[in-house]
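Continuing the batch. This is chain 6 of the set; chains 1 through 5 are on the previous pages. Same settings as before, nothing changed between runs. Recording input and output for traceability.
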Amino acid sequence: MYYFLQDIYRSTSRELKRLDSISRSPLYAHITESIIGMATIKSYGLESSYIDKTFQLIDANNRPYYLQTSGQRWFGLRLESLGNLLLFSVALFSIFQNFLSDSIIGLSLAYLLQVSNVLNLCIRQFAESESQFNSVERLHFYAIGLPMELRKGVHPSSSSWPESGKIEFANVEMKYQHHLPLALKGITFTIHAGEKIGVCGQTGCGKSSLMISLFRMVELSSGIITIDGQDISKLDLLDLRSRMSIIPQDPILFSGTIRSNLDPFGEYTDEALWSSLEKSGLHDVVKKLKGGLDSPVEKNGNNFSVGQRQLLCLSRAILKQTKILVLDECTANVDVETDAFIQKSLRENFKDTTVLSIAHRLHTIMDYDRIMILEQGQVVELDHPRVLVEKQDSLFNRLLLETGDAPYLKSLIKSS
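Output for chain 6:
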């Protein structure tokens, strides 16, 4: 009877626990996003809509949780009833029998109480253990069920690879998922060693997809990308990504210290760390902190301003001094003064580095060697800014006009 009772309960409890886990994830994600974006939510006066959504997600999570709790009460009531029924049966039997002594009857009732408690606990723990294995199921899904990166591969031909930083795209096609359209459509171009390339285009044209392909965040559908003649699709991912630097649009900092953010693997001396901070303009700021290089960095770098976080990312890139640097609209979220300082530091510290810069403010790439214009996942223009400006029907000219400051930008190009 105990076995059949737990068999009924387990099948229901397991599914309710799964629904509870699934409905809890959106709630936690929404609360986290609301805390991070609190200033933006208040500035647009959207507090009520976010509170309403929070209540809706809480209600969605409470439904399976309430049913799960109700199921536990249902199960507990029947377990206790079954134990009481056994105890009542033995007590009733002892009344109408005449061959057992009083001591044996008392002993049997005492043991029966213990056995009922042990059976109840055993059945409950068995059913609860199976329910909690939903957590293992979800870990299995994220660790094994999702497609994994092909991390292992051949090592570069030399320890100093890439020596020059020459990048070649040959008929590259890429899509984010197999059922989605191509984000890059047969792109072919060559970037010479030490060349500075500005990448422009309207939203959704493939600028970020170009950088994602270079770092192999998504594998190519077809085509080849080579760096200094080495096919990157065959390289070990750790080797590939550690030999390039990127300064993202949203500065990424981790909980820890300034030292651990600049040099997480302890590869550089304190002199090198201070030198990189000086070149990025943060030397005096960090020196004034109580712990210096060992000063704490909060989660997401919340104890630093956006500009300081971006400068710390710049320090990280200066420290590594790789032959390829990718700038993903790194000055989009900083003020004009910080933007100008970052651009000046990039020109001074990365003279011999191949630079690919996704441009948010066109004036930052006016003095670059060439400008690449993307449209619908294809390279439509790739030439020196002066050549593109002289073509009246060029897409670059159209982008300059959309900025509202075309004469000034054109004068920058002609003077560069």
